[in-house]
Design a protein that fits this description.
There is one protein chain. The strands form three sheets. Strands 4-5-6-9-10-11-12-13-14-15 form a ten-stranded antiparallel barrel. The chain has a two-stranded antiparallel sheet with strand order 1-2. A two-stranded antiparallel ribbon has the order 7-8. It has 288 residues and is α+β, with helices and mostly antiparallel strands. The chain is globular. The N terminus and C terminus are likely disordered. It is 19% helix and 44% strand. It has three helices and 15 strands. A hairpin with a 6-residue loop joins strand 7 and strand 8. 27% of the residues are buried. The termini are far apart.
Length: 288
C-alpha cells in the first residue's frame, strides 16, 4: 500500500513498511560532538606527528595576519615538520617536536616578501622569516581535559596552555578534533626569550592569547589530513602593539613537496635582500 505525501514534496509516495532512520537524524548523530577521551588524545597526536618511530609528518599552509580592526597586515606561508618523540607517559597523548617556518608576504598578492620602511632614501627592510623548534607535549589530565606545554630544544619551558574547549565529532568522511587553548604566562627562567606561537610573541605576553585548532582526519586511508589554526593575541613585535589574529589553513604533504616549498621560500627570502644591498651600494657609488 502506498501513502501520498503533501503536495509540493519532492517525493510523492513512499511505501508502508519498516521505517529506517531519518536522514536528518543520521546527520545529527554524525555531527554530534563529544569531549576528548583517551583515544581522542592519542589519535590527535598521531594525526599531528605520526607514530612513534615512524615517518615525519609535513604540513604546508597559508593564511593571513590581521589587526582586530580587520586590516590585513600580511599574507602568510607556513611550513612545519612534526616528529613523534614518544607516548604521553601514564596519560594518553604524546610528545612531538615541531620545526616551523613562517614567511610574511605583501598583501598585494604578487608573492613578494613583506618589507617595512627603513630610514632615509626610501630604503626598506624585509620582515625576517620566523623559524624555530619546539618540543610539544599533550596529555589528558584526570579531569578529562587535555593540557599542553611547549619547550625549547634546551628544555626550557616557554608556554603552558589551559584548555578552554576540546571536542571530537564524527563526520560522514572524517573525524574532526577541536582544541581551544588559553596560553598562560610562564615565569620560569628563559620564558621571555622563548617563541610561544607562530606569531613570535614571547612568554611574557601570553595572558590574552588564545589558540584554536581544528584538525580533520579522513576516515579513508591515504587521504591527507587538514587543519585550521587561529591565534588571537598581541601583534608581532615588528608591526607594533595592538591585538592581531592569525588564520592558517594547512594540509599534510609528502616530503618532496615540502622540500620544494621550503627551497622556494628560502629563495624568496634571500633574493630581495640581495637586491636591497645592490640598491644601497649603487647609492653609495653615486654619492662618491
Amino acid at each position: 500500500r502506498e501513502i501520498t505525501l503533501d503536495k509540493g514534496s519532492p517525493h510523492t509516495t513512499r511505501r508502508r513498511g519498516r521505517r529506517g532512520p531519518s536522514p536528518m537524524f543520521c546527520l545529527i548523530v554524525l555531527g554530534a560532538s563529544q569531549p576528548w577521551n583517551a583515544r581522542a588524545a592519542s589519535d590527535y597526536v598521531q594525526a599531528r606527528c605520526g607514530r612513534t618511530g615512524g615517518r615525519d609528518v609535513y604540513w604546508c599552509g597559508e593564511g593571513t595576519l590581521k589587526r582586530s580592526s580587520g586590516h590585513r597586515i600580511a599574507d602568510i606561508d607556513y611550513l612545519e615538520k612534526a616528529t613523534r618523540e614518544g607516548p604521553g607517559g601514564k596519560s594518553p597523548g604524546g610528545t612531538f617536536r615541531v620545526d616551523r617556518m613562517v614567511i610574511y608576504r605583501d598583501v598585494s598578492g604578487n608573492g613578494t616578501v613583506l618589507s617595512l620602511p627603513a630610514g632615509r632614501r626610501g630604503m626598506r627592510r624585509l620582515v625576517p622569516p620566523l623559524e624555530y623548534s619546539h618540543h610539544v607535549g599533550i596529555a589528558l589530565t584526570e579531569s578529562g581535559k587535555p593540557e599542553a606545554v611547549a619547550l625549547r630544544p634546551d628544555g626550557v619551558v616557554v608556554a603552558r596552555a589551559r584548555t578552554l574547549h576540546a571536542s571530537v565529532r564524527r563526520r560522514l568522511f572524517s573525524r574532526a578534533f577541536a582544541l581551544q587553548l588559553q596560553l598562560e604566562r610562564f615565569k620560569g627562567k628563559g620564558a621571555l626569550s622563548g617563541v610561544a606561537s607562530v606569531a613570535g610573541v614571547g612568554g611574557g605576553k601570553l595572558a590574552s592569547t588564545v589558540e584554536e585548532y581544528e584538525l580533520h582526519v579522513p576516515l579513508c586511508p591515504g587521504l591527507p589530513a587538514e587543519m585550521r589554526y587561529r591565534r588571537t593575541g598581541p601583534c608581532p613585535s615588528w608591526c607594533g602593539g595592538g591585538l592581531c589574529t592569525t588564520d592558517l589553513w594547512m594540509r599534510q604533504r609528502r616530503r618532496p613537496y615540502f622540500a620544494d616549498m621550503m627551497a622556494k621560500c628560502r629563495r624568496d627570502v634571500s633574493a630581495p635582500v640581495a637586491e636591497t644591498r645592490r640598491t644601497r651600494d649603487a647609492e653609495e657609488v653615486a654619492r662618491a
